[in-house]
Specification:
The protein has helices at about 75-85, 110-115, and strands at about 10, 15-20, 25-30, 35-40, 45-50, 55-60, 90-100, 120-125, 140-145, 145-155. It contains two helices and ten strands, in the order ββββββαβαβββ. The chain is globular, with a radius of gyration of 15 Å. Strand 5 (about 45-50) and strand 6 form a beta hairpin. It is mainly beta.
């Protein structure tokens, strides 16, 4: 991926990198309690998230209307950093982990590079009752205190 114009905002141990040319936002958290990286590809409509130490990636379709605006992300992140928000993010999206990804390259080179060599699953957004997934087996990420991403195991397939 070409570098393009980038803005990097560090705060609360998360780094936001914006590639204006490709309309890609990358948010990365490095911590002793668990590191992760998520790529929001606004042009292709995919979200990919790598979670360590679980050594797993999730790829899902991005619903643009539910995501923070690409153009507003730097300002929203800076505002969130200055306010030092506590608690849970105002908006959360829950995904159910279902099937392994068969062709990782089809999601683009940046996602391929991030997830290559890791177990990678397709995750589907849900608005269903919580009995379709186990909340105890969810991986919860707080992205810049703007959006919570929850990746949960599916209870409907044994």
């Amino acid at each position: 991926m070409q570098a393009g114009q980038q803005e990097i905002i560090g705060g609360d141990f998360q780094i936001l990198t914006i590639n204006k040319e490709w309309h890609v936002a990358t948010i990365e958290k490095k911590s002793t309690h668990g590191s992760w990286k998520t790529i929001w590809h606004y042009d292709t409509g995919f979200i990919a998230t790598r979670v360590l130490p679980e050594k797993v990636c999730f790829v899902s379709i991005m619903k643009i209307k539910e995501m923070p605006s690409f153009d507003a992300l730097p300002a929203l992140a800076e505002e969130s950093r200055q306010m030092k928000r506590q608690g849970r993010p105002a908006k959360e999206i829950t995904f159910i982990i279902r099937t392994p990804v068969r062709d990782l390259m089809s999601y683009g080179p940046d996602i391929f590079v991030m997830c290559n060599g890791l177990k990678t699953y397709v995750a589907y957004e849900v608005h269903e009752p919580q009995d379709t997934y186990s909340q105890g087996s969810c991986i919860r990420l707080d992205v810049l205190h703007l959006l919570g991403l929850n990746y949960c195991r599916d209870n409907t397939t044994a």
